[in-house]
Write a structure and sequence with these properties.
alpha+beta; six-stranded mixed β-sheet; 14 strands; 5 helices; 203 residues
């Protein structure tokens, strides 16, 4: 029996998508690798205004007391998705139950039941946040999905997940304030103009 046969008994079998995704993360540090709807997606590292907008977003969440004993405000935490056997997402920001680490779901991801809110700040792959992730987050029954749409200068607040969509979808423009449901753990209103300005690329 050859050594090659022992070392590679399953050469004709494709490797699991999770294995491929984890290899990509190792090869592309700083990139965000997700499996959405059975498709591996790879997003390059975000630009400076994306990071600025994300920090600007975190400030009111923390000021409202959401990073405390009952809930935590976390960046880039893995969310296991029920839509496929290997699907997962890594939202830019999330409000989760404080005991989230007691509910692992595999591959450094957590059970969607501990997520009270997920938030995405769009980049070049904005259609993924505005379309595909709407479906998968609704299917995972994430109560609140917030999208800062940097391309169009708007803030979306989606609530009431039903099936693969959200029954309530409010869109806010600069000059408006966007209230979030108190179910996230606090009363919180976001200043849309401030967020849009923070995410706008500088000349």
């Amino acid at each position: 029996m050859s050594a090659a046969a022992v070392e590679h008994p399953c050469d004709d079998e494709p490797e699991p998508m999770l294995v491929t995704a984890n290899h990509l993360m190792e090869q592309l540090p700083g990139y965000r690798v997700e499996i959405i709807g059975g498709v591996i997606t790879v997003a390059p590292p975000p630009d400076g205004p994306h990071a600025d907008a994300l920090t600007t977003l975190m400030i009111p969440f923390i000021a409202a007391g959401l990073h405390g004993d009952e809930t935590r405000v976390l960046q880039a935490i893995g969310l296991w998705l029920p839509g496929g056997p290997e699907d997962y997402a890594i939202p830019d920001l999330a409000v989760v139950d404080a005991d989230f680490d007691a509910h692992p779901a595999g591959n450094n991801c957590y059970d969607p039941a501990v997520f009270r809110l997920v938030l995405e700040v769009t980049s070049g792959n904005y259609r993924n946040d505005l379309r595909n992730k709407v479906s998968v987050y609704a299917e995972a029954k994430i109560p609140v999905y917030v999208i800062l749409d940097r391309r169009h200068g708007r803030l979306h607040v989606l609530t009431e997940p039903t099936g693969c969509t959200y029954d309530s979808h409010e869109v806010y423009a600069p000059g408006q304030s966007a209230p979030l449901p108190s179910s996230i753990g606090a009363d919180l209103t976001l200043d849309v103009a401030e967020l849009v300005a923070a995410g706008r690329p500088r000349a």
